[in-house]
Amino acid sequence: MGDEQRSVAVIGGGIGGLTAGLCLLRAGFDVHIYEQAARLSEVGAGVQVSPNASRVLHGLGLAGALAATGVKPLAWHQRRWDDGRTLLRAPLAEALEATYGFPHYQMHRADLLAALAAAMPAERVHTGHRLTGFTDHGSSVRVRFAGGHRVTADVLVGADGIHSTVRQGLFGADTARFTGCVAYRAVVPADRLKHLDLEVTAQIWLGPGQHFVHYFISGQRMVNYVAVIEQDRWTRESWTDHGEIRDALAAYQGWHPQVREIIGAADETYVWALFDRPPMPRWSSGRVTLLGDAAHAMLPFMAQGAAQAVEDGATLAACLREDAAVPDALLRYERLRLPRTARLQEMSAGNKTRFHLPDGPAQRERDRQLTAGSQAWSFNALGWVYEHDASLLNEGGEDPHMSIRSTAKGRPT
Ligand SMILES: Cc1cc2nc3c(=O)[nH]c(=O)nc-3n(C[C@H](O)[C@H](O)[C@H](O)COP(=O)(O)OP(=O)(O)OC[C@H]3O[C@@H](n4cnc5c(N)ncnc54)[C@H](O)[C@@H]3O)c2cc1C
Questions:
Q1: I want to staple 214 with a disulfide (CB 3.0 to 4.6 A). Which of 9, 225, 227, 338 is the partner?
Q2: What is the side-by-side order of every strand in the sheet holding 202-207?
Q3: Is there an atom of ligand 1 within 6 Å of 34 CB?
Q4: Which one of 2.30.42.10, 3.40.980.10, 3.10.20.30, 3.50.50.60 gives the CATH number of domain 7-71+105-173+279-352?
Q5: pTM for the whole thing?
Q6: What's the pLDDT band for 239 if we cut at 50, 70, 90?
Q7: Are 66 and 103 in contact (CB under 8 A)?
Q8: What is the DSSP track for 312-380?
Q9: Per-residue pLDDT reduced to its tens digit, 321-338
């Protein structure tokens, strides 16, 4: 980097934007984050922080904050929807930490966001700033906000989520595609579920046309659940809405009592329409680029959406630090990140079919593979996801596993 401190405007104060802001700040940039909401906030739900993400977050000095509320699950437990039979039980946190050097946490999204926000100097976070447009003048970018406020920066980063205005400004309007899935999400105080004697594992229950995931968060004080159901259409206006517990229970009629008890123990639930996008051919143009869901929205069925947003920030900061010419640095960032995230987008979409097989021959073959400990379902098959160090810029062979077409079926949110 030259003598002059380069300025970066990051649009969006979510997990992706805040992580990028912190990585850029550590790399010596004059970074400011602009968030449309009046305050930084996250929905009340859980997020899995895999070792590839915790590696970046530890590098930002957040190891203590993650450990304070994050829960390390003993195992990943896949079960059959009706009788609860174990299909696969793979050791998780200890095993992943021993192999990849960084922990796997289950966290409340608000705790993760709070940890990131606490590390970012408050004067660098500007809430109540909704980006409306920008112009790349070649030597700098002029950024416009609702209400008439304007700033100029050397680099503009759109971390503004799946409906990104920055992406629209770069590549034109498009719409995210409805994946045919909706997710009911809720958090339940753990003491309401004491009678179930739940193990501290991440449990996924596979059934025809739907699945159900639950795990502890917030120092084991809360249980997070995600109930994913296939549905033809999404007719509501908002992407996230209050849902009815009775509707979720009706959708899980006939499922194992443990699943139904967890669903019914929540006070309220949100229902999310799950949208994604096919991988984009480009993320960057001139001095403007994208990260997180703005660049690579994916189904949550590999639990990698936020983790990839975290990785983006580390790689972006490393590229900008190494290369004096902003457009070159952004193209390098894109070259390093796009194949990896595209692969995860595809694998996440593929898991919709695999998790939701109707009972029958294909489901029986899937279950046979799971119970036989097939390599295709093992964590080893996902080594290329978890071992990745996003701050390293190994171009050409940036990820030795990128060329290997793994058959990993992965794991969901
Ligand atoms: C049901 C479900 C479960 C999931 N579980 C996991 C999981 O276990 N693990 C995992 O890794 N990922 C998970 N994900 C994915 C993860 O939630 C997302 O990939 C991640 O939150 C994306 O972060 P982001 O910062 O890119 O975008 P967002 O979190 O959407 O943040 C974007 C921010 O930009 C702001 N913004 C938008 N437009 C503007 C504007 N014009 N001006 C200013 N600000 C603006 C928004 O207000 C928001 O704060 C899950 C997703 C879903 C739907």
A1: 225
A2: 86-91, 75-80, 202-207, 210-217, 222-230, 177-189, 269-276, 240-243
A3: yes
A4: 3.50.50.60
A5: 0.93
A6: low
A7: yes
A8: HHHHHHHHHHH-SSHHHHHHHHHHHHHHHHHHHHHHHHHHHHHHTPPTTHHHHHHHHHHHTT-GGGSSG
A9: 998 899 999 999 999 999
